[in-house]
C-alpha cells in the first residue's frame, strides 16, 4: 500500500480524498495556487506545496509541476480528483513515465474513452445501443448538414474531447448549422484544446441516468447501480439521486450489464461512470464514459456502503476487488445538491468573502465542503463550493431531510444555489419522481411567473403605502412611473 499520495486538486474533492487517505493511514500531500493559500484543503493536508499563480493554467493544470511536486514530497501515487487533469491522459502517461502510480485508468484506456467518437465506435461494436449519429469529427458545415439530414433534426453537436456542457449546441434546422458548428468548435478548443465536434440525434426530454463501475487490474468488473442526474441546467448537473425513479429492476439490470460490458470493451480499470440517456419508452442509449470519480459519487456510497475513493486507492495499489456483484444492493435512498457560488436566478458566478457559514447536521446528513468563514471565493475556479447529501430509508425521508438541511444551511457574503434547491425540492414533478432534463427550465419558468405575480402585489402594496403617508404626485409623474419600475421596487421590498 502507498505511504504518501499527492492530491492534484483543490476544494471539496481534495478534502474528500484526504479524508480517505487519513483513514487508510496514508499521508496526504496537497497543492495550492497563490489564491488558495488559506483554503480548507491546504489546512487539512499533511503537507502542502504552492504550485503557481491563481489561474489554473499556471498552477493546477501544469503537469510538469504536479509531477515534480510529487517527486519532491516523496509520493508514490497521484489522485487527480475531478476536473482539471482528472481526464487528461497526458497526466496518466507522465505518471507512468516517472514511476508514479496514477489513481485512475491507464493512459491508453483514458485516451480511448476520453475521445467521444472513438468511444462510441468501441461501444457500438460491443453491442451496446448508442444514439444515432456520426463516428468521425466534423468541421465542414455542408458535411454536418448532410449527416444531420440522415439522422433527422433536432440534432446535437458535442465536443469529442470533453464534457460538462462545453462545446454543445442543439440544432433544429439546416440554417442554424454553420453558426452552431463554428461556435461549438471554438468553445471546444478553448475548453479542451481540441476543436473536434461530432453529431448525434437529440433525444427530446430524456432522463440522464449513469451507472457507477469499479474495475480492478485483474479482469474483475462490477457495477454499483445507478444515479439519476436529470436535474441539470445547460448540461450541468444540479441535483442527483439514487436509486432512479425511472428504473425498474429489469432495466437496472440491463443497464448495469451494459456498463460492465463497456468497461471490458475499452480495457478500463479503476472507478468510472458510464452515462446513458433513457427515453420516454425506457429505451436506453450509451452517452459516454467518465474516466474519473464523479462529483455525485457520495449518493452511491450512501446506498451501497462502499467508499469509492478507498476502492480507487486499493485498485491502483494492485489489489483485487473483494466485492462481488451479488453483494451489491440498494439500502434506502440518497440525494445530492450541488452548492455553487452562483446567483440562484441566473446561475451567474458570485464571488467574494464568505462572511458567515453555518453547515447543516443531524441524522442522514453529509456535507463535503471546501470553504470556511473568511474564505474568498475567487473568479479563477469552478463555482462548486460544497455538496450536500442526505440519506433516508426511502426517497420521501431523503427528500424531507434535504429540505430540512437546506433550511439550516447559511452562507453569507456571496450568493449560492441554495434557494434554487429549496424550490426544486418542493416542485411537484420532482416530488413525484416524474422529471427529465427539461425540468429545471420548467422550474425557472414557474419561478418567473411567481415573481411577476408577487411583484404586482408588492407594487400595489407600495402604492397603497405611499398613499397612506400622503404621497402626492402629478399625473405626468404617474405616467412615467412604469410598471417595470413598480415590479422591481416591489420585488426589492419583499427581498426576492
Explain this structure.
The chain has 496 residues and is of the alpha+beta class. The protein has 4 domains: 4-103, 3-Layer(aba) Sandwich (Rossmann fold); 132-201, ATP-grasp fold, A domain (Dna Ligase, domain 1, 2-Layer Sandwich), CATH 3.30.1490; 207-441, D-amino Acid Aminotransferase, Chain A, domain 1 (2-Layer Sandwich); 445-493. It has 17 helices and 20 strands. It has helices spanning 11-23, 40-44, 63-73, 89-98, 107-114, 116-125, 141-151, 177-192, 249-266, 297-304, 308-316, 395-408, 418-424, 428-431, 439-468, 475-480, 483-493, and strands at residues 4-7, 27-33, 47-52, 77-79, 101-102, 155-159, 169-171, 197-201, 207-215, 221-233, 236-242, 270-278, 284-290, 333-340, 352-353, 356-358, 365-369, 376-377, 384-392, 410-412. The strands form 5 sheets. Strands 13-12-9-10-11-14-19-17 form an 8-stranded antiparallel beta sheet, sandwiched between helices. A 5-stranded parallel beta sheet has the order 3-2-1-4-5. The chain has a 3-stranded antiparallel beta sheet with strand order 7-6-8, with helices on one face. A hairpin with a 2-residue loop joins strand 10 (221-233) and strand 11. Helix 15 (439-468) crosses helix 17 (483-493). Residues 468-496 have low confidence and may be disordered.
Residue windows where pLDDT falls under 50 for at least 5 positions: 468-496
CATH class of the largest domain: Alpha Beta
Q: In one word, what is the shape?
A: globular
CATH topology title of the largest domain: D-amino Acid Aminotransferase, Chain A, domain 1
Number of helices: 17
- Structural class category: alpha+beta
Helix proportion range: 25-40%
* Major sheet details: 8 strands, antiparallel
